[in-house]
Known about the structure:
This protein is mainly alpha-helical.
Amino acid sequence: MEATPSTIRNPLRRERLRQGLTQLELAVVAGCSMNSISIAERGGKISSQMAERLAGALGVPVETISALRLPPKSLPRQDEPAARELVRHDEQRNAAGQ
C-alpha cells in the first residue's frame, strides 16, 4: 500500500507531501540541507528556528509541523529567584533592542 499524506504520521512529511514537494525542493525553499529535512521527518530533534523556517517555507503555522511550540508544563512562580532572573533577562534584551 502506497503512503498518502493522510496515512503519514510525521506532520512535516505529511505536509510536505500534501503540497507535492520533494525533500530537496523544501530544503531549497527553507534554506537548509536535504539531510536536515530527512532527520526531521524521521523524528530527529530540530531547533525551534529550523521548525519556524520549515513552517514558513510550507506556509503553515509551526504548530502544524512540530510539537515544539507546546506551552511549558510548569513555570516558576513570580516570586522565585529563577522567575525574577528570567524577567530581568527579558528586560535587558528588550532594552538592548533585541
